[in-house]
Every structure is written in C-alpha cells, then in structure tokens.
Amino acid sequence: MNYEKKKVLITAKTYPHPSATYQELVCTAGVLEDGTFIRLYPIDYRYMPYWKWYKKYQWIEVEVIKHDKDPRKESYRPKIDTIKPISSPLSTKNNWQERKKYVLANGTQTIEYLNELKNQDKTSLGIIRPEKVSDFVIEPSTEEWKGSWQDVLKQNNLFGPDKKPLEKIPYKFSYVFKCDDDRCNGHKMMMEDWEVGQLYRKMKEQGNSPEEAAQKVKDRFYNDMCASDIDTHFFVGTVLAHGTWVILGVFWPKKESANYKIKKCLIGKSEEE
C-alpha cells in the first residue's frame, strides 16, 4: 500500500460509537496547510496510546491512504501507529487569527452549495457561516446503544485491551439555522461533536439531573457560541450511510466589525460578501 505522510490540523472529533471491528470509532476531520479538508477514519481514539491523543486545533503528522471503502472525497484511512501530534493547539489570540489562517483559507460555504458539490465530486466536508442560528433543540433519545452495539460492548477481548465504558447520551442535540443562500429554506441539523457528549457527562458528574445537564449543553453551544457578538461557523460533514449532513463542531471567534468580510465560495466563482 502506498501511504503518504500528511500534516493535518484537527478541527473536529465526533462522539465515539461502538464498532465490532475497531472496538469503537471516532470520525476525525481536519484541514491541510492549504485549507483543504480531510477525514481520518477509522480511528479508535480512546484505545490509542495516550501520547498519540490529539486536541482540536493541534497539528498532527500521519501516514494515510485513500479510503477504499468510503467513496467520499475527503476520506482517508490513517495508519494509526504513525499518528504524531507535533504542536500545541493553535492560539485564540487576536480573535483566533492563527486558526482562521487555515480553517477559513478557502472561505465558507452554504449547505445548498455543498449539496451541489456533493453531487458533482462527492464533497462531504465543509465549513458554513449561517446567516442566522435560531435555536438549539434538545430531544430525548434512547438511553442504551442499539442491540448490535450493545453486543459489541459486552464482548470480551481475548488479546486486546479491556473494553472501556462508553456512555450513551440520552439526548439528541440539533441546531436550527438558515444559510445565506436564496435557495435555503432553513435547516435542522444534528450536532455530533465529541465536546457535546463530554460536557453533558461532566455536568451529570457535577450532580445535575439529565435535564439540567442537557440545558447546560444548550447554554454553552447556543447561548455562548451563537451569541450576538459571535461570528458563528459550523464544521459540517456527511454521514456515509445516508449522505445527510451533520454538524461536527463550532468555530466561534467574535465578530470583528460591521464591515467584516469573508470569502464566500460559489459555483464557478468566488466573491466577497
């Protein structure tokens, strides 16, 4: 196999889910130095050696090969033992300028535009700058993993590491927003960021009820990250099985001024808003 080494700035990690083949899976997204998006999959993140663990906005080096079972444009299979964090997380100084340099290198998109690209070349990752975020919806979900995943968690490993507890979050969280696109009729989109699940679990551990913990998540991801003085962006990606878009994370520097400009990508051209 012809692996190639890539330098990747991590931008998003999804909450883990069980896997019969890989113990559990975490989808990781990032950008290359030119702002091109890349997906690293599969990764059994919590089962990697601790010194290989990476944080958001941290550069890593990794050897990858184009994924043979995932046709999405940005999907690469990483060689796990080559993952190497090579920096501290990029600073938030100067209103996230160091992060913006890479994350916004190719501008922002809309879901409508990304759907066109998905049909053209199987694009499946992007960053959008919603015109308006109107809600963060909390809905009850199942308290247990689906049957086949429960079986995976119960299996004993004869030769591998012991299974680690993996809590199922009993809520679904979704953003309601509208894109700055004449074709947009509004979206309600699931939020899959690892940090949502981690915050919920942390709030529970601090003595909050499930309902209170879920509200704490909304306070952070809606009241803080989508406040009137915040320039909210969403990292988005498609689900392999269905092709539907989900939100992978939030990029949320402050608004710089009333004249703030960001390059907006359109089919066949780019323009300034």
Structure overview:
This protein has 273 residues and is of the alpha+beta class. The protein folds into 2 domains: 4-85, Nucleic acid-binding proteins (OB fold (Dihydrolipoamide Acetyltransferase, E2P)); 106-272, no CATH class. 21% of the residues lie in helices and 31% in strands. The protein contains 5 helices and 16 strands. It has helices at 93-103, 111-121, 147-154, 194-205, 210-224; strands at 4-13, 17-19, 23-25, 28-31, 37-40, 59-66, 75-78, 84-85, 125-128, 132-140, 171-178, 187-190, 233-238, 245-251, 263-266, 269-272. It has a 5-stranded mixed barrel. Helix 4 crosses helix 5 (210-224). The protein is globular, with a radius of gyration of 19 Å. Mean pLDDT is 88; it is low at 258-273.
What is the topological layout?
Layout (H helix, E strand, L loop, with lengths): L3 E10 L3 E3 L3 E3 L2 E4 L5 E4 L18 E8 L8 E4 L5 E2 L7 H11 L7 H11 L3 E4 L3 E9 L6 H8 L16 E8 L8 E4 L3 H12 L4 H15 L8 E6 L6 E7 L11 E4 L2 E4 L1
Parallel strand pairs: 5-7
Antiparallel strand pairs: 1-4, 1-6, 2-3, 4-5, 6-7, 6-8, 9-13, 10-11, 11-12, 13-14, 15-16
Helix-strand sequence: EEEEEEEEHHEEHEEHHEEEE
Ends distance: 44 Å
How many strands, what sense, and barrel or not for the largest sheet?
A: 5 strands, mixed, barrel
Radius of gyration, taken over Cα atoms and rounded to an integer in Å: 19 Å
> Strand share of the residues?
25-35%
Number of strands: 16
Instruction: Report the principal-axis shape.
Output: globular
Domain unit count: 2
> How are the strands of the biggest sheet laid out side by side?
1-4-5-7-6
Low-pLDDT segments, ≥5 res: 258-273
Mean pLDDT across the residues is 88
